[in-house]
Structures are given as C-alpha cells and as structure tokens.
Design brief:
- This is Sgc region protein SgcQ.
- Belongs to the BtpA family.
- The chain is an alpha/beta fold.
- The protein has a single domain, classed as TIM Barrel (Alpha-Beta Barrel), CATH 3.20.20.390.
- The protein is built from nine helices and eleven strands.
- Strand 3, helix 4 (about 100-110) and strand 4 form a beta-alpha-beta unit.
- Helix 3 (about 75-85) runs parallel beside helix 4 and helix 6 crosses helix 7 (about 200-210).
- It is globular, with a radius of gyration of 17 Å.
Length: about 270
C-alpha cells in the first residue's frame, strides 16, 4: 500500500487541478474585477471538481503567465487568501503548487494545511523562462525549518517547457532522484499542460523505481486513462476537466463526473496485494 491510500484515501488517485486566474502582480490580472472575481471563479471550479468525485485537488497559480522561478510575495499572499476563503467548502485533501518556486510552495502549504506540494525540486534546465536552476538541499532544509516535514513532495522530473542542460536518460534521472532525495512521488509530464504523458516513458520510470509512487502529470483523458493508470499509481488531471477540454476554460462538471465514473470502474477491477 502506498501513502496515497493513507493521505488521499485511495490507490490510483486522481488529483485534480484547480487553476487560479491571474493574480495581483501578474501581467493579465483583471484589476477591474479584482480578487473577488478570482475567488468566485476558484470556488466555482473547485466545487465542480469536488462534487464530480475527484480524490484530491491541487491549487495552482496556473494563469500567472509567464511564470517566475522566484515568485513574489503578493502571489503567495493572494493564493493563501483564496484557499482561506474556500476552506469551509473543502472536504477532500488538497495540495498547492506556486509555479515555479519550491520554497514558496512549501510556505503556502505550511500556512494552509496542504497535504502535498508538486514542484521542480531538482535539476538544471534550459527553459522558456531562461536557465532554470534548483537547490533541493536548501529546499528540504527550508521545509523542516518551517514545520512542513509531513507535507508530501511530488517531484516533477520532466518539467514542462524545459529540458535538462545535460543529456540524461529518464531511468538515470529517476534512480538518482529517488536515491538522493527520497521523494514521495515522481511526476512524469508532457511538454505543456494538457499534453499527453508518454506511456512508454511512464513505464520506464515506474520499472526503474517500483517502490516509489509515480504519477502521470499531464494529458490524461477518457480514452487513455485505463492505459496510463495501469502503469502509474495515479494522475494529476487539469485540462481534461475543462469545457471542451481546453486549458483556458473553466471546469465542466459533466466532464468531471464522466471521467471519475470511468476511473472508479477501473479501480473496482484491481486487486491490491
């Protein structure tokens, strides 16, 4: 049994993305509608996901485009306010992701009681955001300094819109990441949000680190969920749940329910040892 059962309540867990609209300080923040509108839309999307039967939610500043790797205080403050406003509605486990800043994600988790964090914790990349470096040793020490040692860490080892500065096989990345950092999960992604995770790469990672939770991080849809969940321990799902399956749209409750009905049917056929 993995920690998914203990923390989220099920194996083959579906962690749904709740994408926040642009926030104060972001280039596309709507100052006329203000934070009240951002909160209203976040609540609507969250309730659609929760009522549709997802297992957990990951709150993210997905529309803070273009992303920073050193996120400003106003972003974290705005995200904390949104989650605080939603707290009485939240009945399922949740995590947070402050793109793309691992320390700020942990700060937000500590402030809100999030159970997990997804981030880029390791590696040096050539990315759309410039050269992207990390300092996992400092990040983990920061986690313990702020009292967030029980927050589960989901390591994205195939960052979106980025590539390792040095050529490395995915098996090598997975093995060394697990050996050096003891992640709670490895996330395997496609190129961008909504882009399908390559099932062959997913399998190579899982075969390399069978004792570690491996999640399909992008692009799971109705037509590939059985194939991917037969390999992965669960998935992070965002774009699929939106109207017409488009990243920029809001959550469609009917799509959430149909997807989760199929997931639950798939899970019912699995015998866990």
């Amino acid at each position: 049994m993995t920690w998914l059962k203990e923390v989220i309540g099920t194996e083959k867990a579906i962690i749904a993305m709740c994408h926040f609209l642009p926030l104060p300080g972001d280039p596309y923040f709507d100052q006329e509608k203000g934070m009240e509108y951002v909160i209203e839309m976040a609540r609507r999307d969250f309730l659609a996901l929760q009522s549709g039967g997802v297992d957990a939610v990951l709150f993210s500043n997905e529309f803070s485009l273009p992303y920073l790797t050193d996120v400003k205080t106003e972003t974290v403050a705005a995200m904390a306010r949104i989650i605080g406003e939603l707290m009485t509605d939240i009945k399922i486990p949740f995590g947070v992701n402050v793109l793309w800043d691992a320390k700020k994600s942990l700060d937000l988790a500590a402030a809100t009681g999030a159970k997990f964090v997804r981030e880029i914790f390791t590696g040096v990349y050539a990315s759309d955001f410039g050269m992207w470096n990390t300092n996992v040793g400092e990040t983990i020490r920061h986690q313990h300094r702020i009292g967030a040692k029980d927050v589960k860490l989901l390591f994205n080892i195939v960052p979106e819109a980025a590539k390792y500065m040095a050529e490395r096989e995915i098996e090598s990345i997975a093995k060394s990441t697990v050996f050096n950092n003891r992640p709670d999960a490895l996330c395997v992604s496609g190129l961008t949000a909504g882009a399908e995770t390559d099932s062959a790469i997913l399998k190579r990672v899982k075969d390399t680190v069978p004792g570690t939770v491996v999640l399909a991080n992008t692009g799971m849809r109705m037509e590939n969920l059985e194939q991917q969940l037969s390999i992965a321990d669960g998935a992070v799902v965002g774009t699929t749940f939106k109207h017409d399956g488009k990243f920029e749209n809001h959550v469609d409750p009917a799509r959430v329910k149909s997807f989760m009905d199929k997931v639950k049917a798939f899970r019912s056929q699995i015998v866990y040892s």
